[in-house]
Amino acid sequence: MNIKTTLKTSVAAAALFAVAAPVVSTSADAGTWNSGNKNKVVMSGQVHRGLMYADDGAADSLFNVGGGSTSTRVRWIATGQMNESVSVKGLIEMNTPTSNDVNSSSLTITGGSQNRSTADRAWGIRHLDIKFSHKTMGALSIGQGNTASNGKSEVSYTGTGNVYYTGLGFGAGMDFVNSSTNISSGTSVGDIFTNFDGLSRADRIRYDLPSFNGLNIAVGYVDGGSADIGAGYSVKAGSVSFKMGAQYNTKAATSTTINDEWSVSGGVKHDSGLSLSGFYGQRDAVATNVDPEVWGATLGYEAKLNSMGKTAFSLNYASAEETNNTNGTEGDSWGVAVQQSIDSVGTALWAAYQNYSYDTIGSTSFDDVSVVYAGATVKF
After folding, report:
1. What is the spatial distance between Cα 380 and Cα 378, in angstroms, rounded to a whole number?
2. Nearest to residue 152, comparing CAs of 97, 213, 218, 203?
3. What is the pLDDT of residues 235-254, one digit of tens each?
4. What's the domain range around 368?
5. Which pTM value belongs to this model?
6. Which CATH number belongs to the domain containing residue 85 in this structure?
7. Cα(343)–Cα(349) distance, rounded to whole angstroms?
8. pLDDT per residue as tens digits for the range 211-232
9. Cβ(215)–Cβ(231) under 8 Å?
């Protein structure tokens, strides 16, 4: 597929949408939620907080944190109908992290806690996006938002997504410590464990092709010269549901160490609540002696065991090789998670344990990093 040609076509289509059905708005009416026009505006978000206990073999500490596989955020969505075929959506979503993010918090040798990045304390823009959708011609998005490849490594049925889904959920800031000297290796959990999930959120142009029999395909161009393509598919046959995602992205224009990456993920779930999910990804590194590769699998079970809502359990394993673009490095991770939904108040309680190990070429050994993370997510 020629991404540039597709994007040119999508821009032309969007222009036709706008010419055919212009929006006529009235003057703003101060104090009203919809500003006097016919758009519908909805505000929503979530508060995500927890306690994390981490042990790197030389020190341990308890942290009061936020973040992980999801985070505290607030959003505003405006939707309107241009005509019977074309709709428009405006999305503003702000990330509201804390000074102690679960994936930037780390340990000192004496057992104290520290934060690696003061930037984690500032509000950040997750989405600032406008999307035009046509009933038969697909959708065009402009602004900062999900790239075509975002989320395609994270398709799963785990049911424990508030604390873990694929690759890495929490504890990324913890360094691996030399077993003999108790000195930090300078390599963190987050340097090793990933799922190669595309280009995340960025300033981009994105075109989503029309859906066809459960298949969704999108292409995009990101400021700076990167481009990507992503696809998703879902189907249910009898008592079995199946879904998957796949993506490819180029980074050569914006990175000195990475040429491109690709990944796939998916899962199968039985109506009984039993599921199996997995992911796999590769990176084409600039260095000729490294071949970064990741894969993992999660066994899950989800059922309504009480009147509050669904209860989900998951058991995961992940393997990473040379993901820090260094020859001979590898890591293994395993963990368990549980999540309890409380439907009446839009809340989920969750807890998880994760163990990370790290190896390099040679005789040097490193202690495992063990992390326990428990807390709640309140949606509104």
Report:
1. 7
2. 218
3. 999 999 999 999 999 999 99
4. 3-26+45-379
5. 0.86
6. 2.40.160.10
7. 11
8. 999 999 999 999 999 999 999 9
9. yes
